Model the fold of this input.
Amino acid sequence: MISVLAYNVAFGRKLDKIEKWLLKQPDFDIICFQEFPFSEDSQFLKNFKERGYDYKFSPTSHLTTIFLRIHGKHGELTLYKKSKLTLLSSHVIKLGPNFLEKRFRVEGEKTSLLTVFQYGKQKLVVTNSQLVCYAINSRRINQIAKILKKVKSLGDDSKFATVILGDFNYTSRFRQKKLIEFMAKNDLTNAYKGTTHKYLFIAQQIDYVFSNNCTVKNVKIDRKIKFSDHSPVTFNIDFAK
Done:
């Protein structure tokens, strides 16, 4: 089995506390962050390289407001344990600019980071994404469709396992069933339901994990961890038939 952590780290404002928390946990085989603050000389990344990890990063756009100013490069970061997984390839999937972001002249567009790993005889595809925030749900579904198109372009998807995860910004409070049904039509199973985020004291799920040709087990949402407006989600990937 492979252990995974998925976590939107809220632009890394408490990245030092997140690192201290991670040091107290068993090593995860894969760590998928969204809104990670990236720099080439990041001490956080240097520390994890010393612990046997390597990584891939995909920059993405963020809409800033008068209440929140974001500086530097942020996006999806996927760390992986080199002793357990071999990286075969990685791809940045461009998900298209959002009208509201273009209106406020935000540069770039949302992206998804796709990584292909070899684990023993098993090939595993992981997509780490943050979908558009200020939009209707059909826009997010369109972005997911672009991710799935790229996954299918890798070849016969019955020959590899797939895990689609991240901050979908798709609230469980409005037509969540439509998202789950859309994924099911694409042979992807929803791993869990549960609160992962609070917005103006409204509890909701906007972080998801979907899988194909593998089983997601032992899902845990750690709501006691308060380093972000999201809760970290941990789980195991089992390839047993």
User: Anything to note?
Assistant: The two ends are 12 Å apart (CA to CA). The first strand starts at residue 2 and ends at 8.
